[in-house]
Amino acid sequence: MEAMPKGCSRRSHGALGGRTTGPRPGVRLKALRRHPVADVRDAALDEVTAYE
Questions:
Q1: Does pTM surpass 0.70?
Q2: pLDDT tens, 4-17?
Q3: Is 4 part of a structural domain of the chain?
Q4: Which of 14, 29, 40, 52 can pair with 35 through a Cys bridge, CB separation 3.0 to 4.6 Å?
């Protein structure tokens, strides 16, 4: 697997998701799911926000 570009890791979403300023975490995750880099898209698609 290729290395992800700097700052585009799954951990960065987790670290930034709890912030109270800026867009809601769900909005950011939706944007990452449309990211042009396939590895970033795949990592975002693997994130689970709710279990049914």
A1: no
A2: 555 555 555 555 55
A3: no
A4: 40
